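Sample pair:
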Amino acid sequence: MTFSEAIQSVFSKATKLEGRAPRSEYWYWILFTVIVQLFALIPLIIVAMLLRQADAWALLPFIIAAAAIWFFLWLTHITVTVRRYHDQGMSGWMFFIGFIPAVGGLLEIIFMLQPSQPGSNKFGVQYLGK
């Protein structure tokens, strides 16, 4: 799956928790969200450096825009992560393992690096590319 195919797939399934997401789709989505978040924060940082403290209200539109972008990306991150767990034959509820203090994030990364379950599972058929 290419970068653009992965992003299109995630956006087309942004509200769907069923199905499977291959590793490439998940990691291309992570790369995309990092890039988008950087481009959302750069204007905020530049404007913040140029303003005096008394003009802090001028940052509000930038903060609202960055927060809205982050929120949308976070919601779609949940769905693609659930589908990635499905791809390995695990329950989507495994998503909450990431909330375990100190080790949750590391465990989630380890799970996301695991290969897909070959063939079909109860969540659908394996993506084999074109």
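Helices lie at 3-12, 23-50, 60-87, 104-113.
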